Amino acid sequence: MNAIHHPKRLRNHPVGKSATVAFLLGFAPTEGICLCALIIFLFPVLLRAADPSATPSAAAGEALYNGIVLPSLWPPQPATWPHPEPVVPPYLVSPPPVIPIDVGRQLFVDDFLIEETTLQRAFHLAEYYPGNPVLRPDQPWESRDGLAETMAFSDGVWFDPKDNLFKVWYVSGKERCTCHATSTDGIHWEKPALDVEPPSNIVLRKTRDSATVWLDLDEKDPRRRFKMTLFAMDAVERNKPLEFRHSPDGIHWSAVVASNGYPDKSIYMDRTTMFYNPFRRLWVLSLRDWDEGPQHTARCRYYVETPDLARLGTLWQDKSTLSKWASADRLDRLPGASFAQLYNLDAVAYESLLLGAFSINTANADTQTGRPKINQVKLGYSRDGFHWYRPDRRVFLPVSENADAWNWGNVQSVGGVCLVVGDRLYFYVSGRTGRASTVGLAFLRRDGFASMDAGPEEGMLTTRPVRFSGKHLFVNVDDPRGELRVEILNQAGQAVAPFTSGTCVPAAADQTSHMVRWKGANDLSSLVNQPVRFRFRLTSGRLYAFWVSPEPSGASRGYVAAGGPGFFGNRDLGGVTGRN
Predict the structure, then answer these.
(1) Can you tell me whether residue 80 is helix, strand or coil?
(2) CA–CA separation, 117 vs 538, rounded Å?
């Protein structure tokens, strides 16, 4: 696991609007009258920079699970498009006065939960499995015209609790069919002989570009358990290339249920994908388009939401009715690169937020060397489902500079983004060599996107006021040579007995789920639904997440991305082995 420390993150003062001002202006905040005056003077302007659609008098709309209230005008329409500069989400500028934390593990990827801290934030990168690729072309129907292809583009990788199998869908036969493979461990894959085109593992014969397969565990109709959107190449002339299908098993797919496109410009939609936002119970289409901007960002994303993908054909008539959403910005430029474009954006609900996989394109295919175009995956995080915060612009899932490597070029994320497997997250990506397309695997500690770190000297982190209905505090912590103590503060900032640092049983462990205990208290039931702050005191360790569970097992009630062994739905509701 790689990590980077950001000196600007080490603070001995409150975290809040001053930190947001620093992000926008590009300097580290310091205490003093000058900064306060600057904030007062610039705050209305900065608020609109954080969300160009926001106005001080905007009416309130839908209230979310985490206390964020959406504006009545939704989705927002940014004034600047594509975004030449990083955009700070409005919920980081003005977080809720009290944050409900009943849904999921609470991650430290931003300052949403942090009131003040002296800890240092570090972001971490995934590590590729040394046996990659885990899925490679080895069947006659997977090769055509000199290209051997088993490419998840985005397609999907899921764990299906119905039959306890990992499942992957991928494009093959030079983009002329969609195939299906299964695994018991997520590493070793089998291509079953299916009855669609026996004896192959083909599930859909359709010349296509991008597709997304989604295992919908909230679906009540068993015939619609799996959902697929697909860009059909034979439908471009009809201007209806984006097609929706469903399936009971991911193998036998329905006829086209609905379709849509752009009049005269449907080809621009080729890398369109979709995902489900369970926090709002809506499907989101991540529409690929081409929109030249001042930073030459070109490829970008439009946003469409709907409660039912069967309505696809009526969601828009032309591009003017779509909401401008996401693009690359100046921080995505690599040294020596002439452009940076958002090639694709996949997303999934992970614990208490949306996790976004941003495929950033920085070079076209090289006809002289045969190297495919350079796409690499970076991460982003959203707490309102629309605005993304991308504090770490290092590549999370990179290409290789080795011409013989499976990921020499065009690394792309998959539908579902990642899976929860014990104490690790499994990230699957496709990669290309110019002669073959394959699927590789990378690992990250569970919740391991960012940690708040301390050295030998004690560091402190105090949350904003939070409210919970659970009874047991859990942490994801790595401090076997250090110590973590937690105290709980009331609204006046005073420790609530018996939940003081002195009575807290110190944690010295490396566990992704560790229960915090206090002498003289069985649980937190006396504090249920009261606004309190948690203060974490840490030495020689890393704190990744915290949450309050209703169960001693530590179930977070958060979302588990594309699932994993031991989860019986799309949420962590208990029953998973491996907890302390």
Answers:
(1) coil
(2) 11
In a domain, 540, yes or no: no
Q: d(Cα 535, Cα 456) in Å, to the nearest integer?
A: 18
Helix, strand, coil percentages, rounded to 5, for the chain: 10, 40, 50
d(CA 419, CA 197): 29
Residue 139: CB atoms within 10 Å: 16
Final residue of a structural domain among 428, 445, 462: 445
Q: In the numeric block, which tokens belong to residue 338?
A: 């002439």
172 shares a domain with 66: no
Q: Which of 159, 170, 235, 233 is nearest to 204 (CA)?
A: 170
Query: Rounded to 5 degrees, what are φ and ψ at 376?
Result: -140, 150
Q: Clarify whether residues 155 and 230 are in a common domain.
A: yes
Helix (H, G, I), strand (E, B) or coil at 348: strand
Give the three-state DSSP class for 37: helix
Domain that holds residue 148: 127-445
Alpha carbons 353 and 66: distance in angstroms, whole number: 9
- Determine the length of the chain: 580
Report yes or no on 465 lying in a domain.
Answer: no
The Cβ of residue 561 has, within 10 Å, a number of other Cβ atoms equal to 23
Nearest alpha-carbon partner for 370 in 576, 549, 146 = 146
Which residue spans within 72-201 are E strands per DSSP?
Answer: 99-100, 106-107, 114-117, 120-125, 127-128, 143-144, 147-149, 151-160, 165-172, 177-183, 189-190
Of 464, 477, 462, the C-alpha closest to 516 is: 477
In terms of Cα–Cα distance, which of 471, 469, 479 is closest to 536? 479
Give the separation between CA 291 and CA 301, rounded to whole angstroms: 9
Answer yes or no: do 223 and 145 share one domain: yes
CA distance 570 to 349: 9
Q: What is the pLDDT along the chain (580 residues), one digit of tens a residue?
A: 444 444 334 444 445 444 444 444 443 333 333 333 333 334 333 443 444 333 333 457 899 999 999 999 999 988 777 777 898 999 999 999 999 999 999 999 999 999 999 999 999 999 999 999 999 999 999 998 888 999 999 999 999 999 999 999 999 988 899 999 999 999 999 999 999 999 999 999 999 999 999 999 999 999 999 999 999 998 887 788 999 999 999 999 999 999 998 776 776 789 999 999 999 999 999 999 887 655 545 889 999 999 999 999 999 888 778 898 999 998 998 888 888 999 999 999 999 999 999 999 999 999 999 999 999 999 999 999 999 999 999 999 999 999 999 999 999 999 999 999 999 999 999 999 988 999 999 999 999 999 999 999 999 999 999 999 999 999 999 999 999 999 999 999 999 999 999 999 999 999 999 999 999 999 999 999 999 999 999 999 999 999 999 999 999 999 999 999 999 999 999 855 433 3
Query: Are 266 and 360 contained in the same domain?
Result: yes
The verdict on 65 and 136 lying in the same domain is: no
Residue 113 is assigned to a structural domain of this protein: no
- Max intra-chain CA distance, the chain: 75
E strand or H helix at 430, and its extent?
strand 424-432
Last-in-domain residue among 420, 445, 470: 445
